Each structure stands twice: as C-alpha cells, then as structure tokens.
C-alpha cells in the first residue's frame, strides 16, 4: 500500500489539511495517515494545546473519510517529536511505501529538521503546491528528485491564523469542539 503521512501539530486541524489529504488520494496513494506531534521542536510550546485535545479534533475532522486514519504514535515516543524517529518506527512495523505529505512551506523548513539527509535518502515527499516554488534551499538541491509536486488549490487558512485571529477551521465538528472546550480563547 502507498501511504501519505501528514505530520503536524494540528493546533488546530483545519480544512487545508483535509484538502491536502484529498489531493494525495487523487494523486494515487491508498491512505493518508494524520500524525499529530505532541511537541514539534520547531514550534513555540506556549501556543500548543494538549495533545489529547488535538487528537480529538483530528479524529472529528477525519471521521467519515474511509482513506484517512489518525495515528497517535508520536504520543508514545520520546519528546520532542522527530520525524526521522517516527519514520523508523513506522518502517519497522509496516511494509507500506511511505510518502511524506506537506506544503511548499516545508521545503524551507526541511534544512532545520534533525537527520533530514537520512529522511531524504529513504522517503519521497508529496508536496501540495500552493504557489510556484522558485527558489530551492541550497541544501536540498541534490534531492530534487525526492519531491513530487501535486496540484493543490490555494487556501489561505492556517492554524496560526485560527489561533491568533479567532477564525474558524471550516470543519464544523472541529469548530464546535473548539467552542465547547473554549480552546484558543474562543
């Protein structure tokens, strides 16, 4: 099976995440696994709500999508969450072909990832191309063949905008959960 792995803080999950997953299914993967990170080493911890709340929101968002699965693996691994460690565990447990699903913004973050060369040597990325990427980070030049760009309708939603501007995620079940639990100052 071909599995696209969508890593993220999902703080909160929003419509853009679901649209990325749908783009990966259209591209030809069999399933998209959503993998919430308890603590992304590149994100500000002060803004991060509890992992259980984020897992609950992802579960609400993907219910009804038979090809989407919530994987809480990182909750059980050492913190902070490093993608290369999660990939090692997944590759030991499963014989699937794994792809990392991301947006073009991740291209500029990749050089900061721990053991990124190990990841790039062993996995390909499905990149939801929101805009034309004109400049590659120099450290990724030799890995351009590891990036498969898939069409993706541009979306202006971001988790930080939802938190800071009190916007909605455009996923009704998630928005209700946020309001009921008074998350993000709602």
How would you sum up this structure, described in words?
A 6-stranded parallel β-sheet has the order 3-2-1-4-5-6, with helices on both faces. The protein is globular and about 45 Å long. It has 186 residues and is an alpha/beta fold. The mean pLDDT is 88. The protein has helices spanning 15-27, 51-62, 83-93, 105-109, 116-122, 159-165, 172-181; strands at 2-8, 31-36, 68-70, 97-103, 124-129, 147-151. The longest helix is centred in the N-terminal third of the chain and has 13 residues, at 15-27. The protein has a single domain (2-156), classed as Rossmann fold.
CATH homologous superfamily - what is it?
A: HUPs
Can you identify the CATH class? Alpha Beta
- Poorly predicted runs are none
The tally of domains stands at 1
- How many extended strands? 6
Helix content: 25-40%
Q: Can you summarize the main beta sheet?
A: 6 strands, parallel
Estimate the global geometry from the Cα principal axes: globular
Radius of gyration: 16 Å
Strand order of the largest sheet: 3-2-1-4-5-6
Approximately how much beta-strand content do the residues carry?
15-25%
pLDDT average, as an integer? 88
SSE pattern: EHEHEHEHHEEHH
CATH topology grouping: Rossmann fold
Q: So how many helices?
A: 7
Secondary-structure-derived class: alpha/beta
